[in-house]
Amino acid sequence: MAKQGLKDRLKDKKEELKSRGEVGDIVFVKDGDVRRIRILNMGDENEFIKEVDQFYLGNEIRGVISPATFNEPCAIMEGYEELKNSSENDDKETASNFAPRKRYLAFCAFYSDKLGKELDEKLSPRFILLTSGLYQSIIDLYLDEDEWGDMTNPQEGYDLKVSRSGKGKMDTEYSVTACKNTPAPKKYRKKVFDLDEEVRKIVPNYEETERIINQYMGLEPVTKKKKKLKKKKKSDAD
């Protein structure tokens, strides 16, 4: 077998690094990345980007969309509130490390090229995570009816290029650029999606959020037996 050259190894490494931002149901725009996307049709007069509550729980767990997005119970949110309201400074500091943030999800078709000619079948359809700044920029394009307008229109809409530069909190910049008007990818032109329904598919239930917050805090799952023991100890103390 021929020895793989440096250029080929570097190309493989580049693809490996790129794929790390494509694991799961949400695509994250990474430093130096440019993503060409088409926000899919959610129907006339329906919101096409969803505001969500997200916790970032380190590089291992990464981002988790909270059920609190839909006003439903979330063990991560409960743990955060408990620590935030604690009288202990260490608890408050821990809470600040995973405080929930507002993020925005758009359900998109992704392209594997920057010209919008090749649909990325592996990624599409999937959510892209947007900052508030990107969301505002997309709203500005949507409201500019003279030049741009509704980018989700399957026939008369247009693709977007989302890019990011910088790695730190202070130097990171995101931008969005409108492409010329083109039809949506053929397989999505006649489809109308329900945004809330699609988001709910990637939101963990309460039991899953319990497991996630326990993993993040380095705690063992609390069994029914342990709960009984705790109650017993409390009554003994009384």
Task: Tell me what you see in this structure.
Strands 1, 2, 3, 4, 5, 6, 7 and 8 form an 8-stranded mixed β-sheet that branches. The longest helix is centred in the first third of the chain and has 14 residues, at 6-19. Helix 3 packs antiparallel against helix 4 (89-97). Strand 7 and strand 8 form a beta hairpin. The protein contains 8 helices and 8 strands; from the N terminus they run H-E-E-E-H-E-H-H-E-E-H-E-E-H-H-H. The chain has a single domain, classed as Replication Fork Single-Stranded DNA Binding Protein, CATH 3.90.198. With 238 residues, the protein is an alpha+beta fold.
Essential attributes:
eight-stranded mixed beta sheet, 238 residues, 8 helices, 21% strand, Replication Fork Single-Stranded DNA Binding Protein, alpha+beta
Write a concise synopsis of the structure shown.
With 238 residues, the protein is an alpha+beta fold.
**β-sheet strand percentage:** 15-25%
Could you say what the CATH architecture is?
A: Alpha-Beta Complex
Question: What's the number of helices?
Answer: 8
Kindly identify the CATH topology: Replication Fork Single-Stranded DNA Binding Protein
Oligomer state of the chains in this structure: single chain
Low-pLDDT residue intervals, each spanning 5 or more residues:
16-23, 222-238
Helix content: 25-40%
User: What is the CATH class name?
Assistant: Alpha Beta
Q: How far from one another are the termini?
A: 75 Å
How can the largest sheet be summarized? 8 strands, mixed
| Sheet/helix structural class | alpha+beta
Find the count of extended strands (DSSP E, 2+ residues). 8
Instruction: Provide the number of structural domains.
Output: 1
Overall geometry: globular
The average pLDDT value, as a whole number, equals: 84
- Rg on CA atoms, Å: 22 Å
The arrangement of helices and strands along the chain is HEEEHEHHEEHEEHHH
Q: What's the CATH H-level superfamily name?
A: Replication Fork Single-Stranded Dna Binding Protein
